[in-house]
Specification:
By secondary structure, the protein is mainly β. Helices cover 1% and strands 52% of the residues.
């Protein structure tokens, strides 16, 4: 559900300057709703509602609820104990584990189990909504094992297993690409050198054979795996705050966000459309959350003392974040810049006239800064190197009537000024 904004064009120029950060979620103008209850996980149903889970395991009585995607209110509780893994793309089925501790398929409408199948890992649906795919492990000793993929067709009852195995690797977590071409897994590789590694693998979803081992990295748990909506990228979060994003066409490492390089370390992430990436670091002090544009890593939206796993809700054009309670943010508002409010009005001022952008009354300590002008849709108009040794900074640029943003990076902070052009 998209919202329309009416811009009232006035004779005077409006501008406001702020750090690209927001106050607490409760006072955030982008906040659509938040839950009163705490949840450990959530899934976004194709109809826009949220399936939210509380409790770690069915043996301890874990529960699943359906929330209204427009309001966050509880619509129903599924008969406990339950733990949901995935929703079929057509919205009809849910893969889960129930009180029998068996993997099963649940009818979304009735909440009843329609199938049980053989799996001990985390089954995910293929795009056909009838095939589940998951890993199987052939044990070697107490911890080690060999890994394969297996699929199960819920209509025919047919099982299909990959012919080749990945040896000395135990993997339970996986993700299926939206286009149905790939499966990505992350687990532990027990090396012959006596060391263990986090092994990140890309598989062919049709043949169930391996395509490429993307990486053997530090020996830590793989916490989450996600594909971008266009299936061109796949990301792996490795404990505690290391995110590795690979290209699926040439298998190259596209981005690495971690604590050591200080570049948006992430313990939870989500692709918000193909163009934006939500990065939350729950291990930072305080926790940090950034929404960045993938193309240039420009910060679109930030929060302090906030983090969590994120997903895009296409039905309501919203960003869903689990930070103990579940939050829903208006994604269109975030992109439009409606969230930006004056917090530091004395930092500098901006004025546009006669095809020139003026930056006045600035007090930057650095002599050289990088800046960027974007339009209301986040499209980059120009990248600029600023020299601050003079008084007013003049940027000759001809702009059409509309709302624009000036982004200035100073050290590890980004300042944003919104300004209106009327011709």
């Amino acid at each position: 559900m998209k919202r329309a904004f009416v811009l009232f064009v006035v004779a005077m120029l409006y501008c406001s300057t702020t750090l690209a950060q927001e106050p607490d979620p409760e006072s955030d103008p982008n906040l659509l709703w938040k839950t009163n209850e705490f949840y450990l996980r959530f899934l976004v149903h194709p109809n826009g509602n949220i399936l939210a889970g509380a409790g770690h395991v069915v043996e301890e009585g874990s529960k699943e609820f359906e929330l209204d995607g427009n309001t966050g209110m509880i619509m129903r509780e599924f008969t406990p104990p339950l733990y949901f893994f995935d929703i079929s793309p057509d919205g009809k089925y849910i893969s889960a584990i129930d009180k029998s501790t068996q993997r099963c398929v649940i009818d979304y409408e009735t909440g009843e189990v329609v199938k049980y199948f053989s799996s001990t890992t985390y089954p995910k649906f293929m795009p056909d909504s009838r095939t589940l795919i998951y890993t199987i492990i052939e044990p070697i000793g107490e911890l080690n094992g060999n890994n394969r993929l297996q699929s199960y067709n819920i209509e025919t009852g047919e099982y299909k297993t990959s012919k080749n195995m990945v040896r000395n690797t135990t993997t339970r977590l996986l993700a299926v690409s939206p286009n149905g071409q790939y499966v990505a897994t992350g687990g532990t590789f027990y090396g012959t050198d006596g060391n263990n590694y986090s092994r990140l693998i890309l598989w062919n979803a049709e043949t169930l054979d391996t395509i490429r081992i993307l990486g053997d990295i530090e020996s830590m748990e793989v916490r989450s795996i996600k594909f971008s909506p266009d299936s061109k990228l796949v990301g792996f979060v490795v404990y505690s705050s290391n995110l590795y994003i690979y290209k699926t066409d040439d298998f190259s490492l596209y981005r690495n966000y971690n604590q050591s390089n200080g570049n948006f370390p992430s313990s939870g992430f989500g692709f918000i459309t193909n163009d934006y990436l939500a990065l939350g670091d729950g291990y930072a002090t305080p926790p940090a959350f950034n929404l960045v544009k993938l193309e240039n890593e420009q910060i679109i939206y930030s929060k302090n003392d906030f983090a969590g796993i994120s997903e895009y809700n296409q039905v309501y054009n919203s960003m869903i974040v689990n930070h103990g309670v579940i939050y829903s943010f208006d994604f269109e508002k975030i992109l439009s810049g409606a969230s930006i409010t004056p917090e530091i009005p004395s930092l500098f001022s901006v004025e546009y006239m006669t095809n020139t952008l003026f930056i006045k009354n600035h007090n930057f300590t650095s002599l050289q800064l990088s800046a960027q002008i974007t339009d209301i849709n986040g499209r980059i108009i120009r990248n600029i190197d600023l020299h601050t040794s003079t008084g007013d900074i003049r940027i000759p640029i001809k702009l059409l009537s509309g709302t624009y943003f000036l982004h200035i990076k100073a050290g590890n902070k980004e300042y944003v000024s919104k300004f209106l052009v009327t011709n």
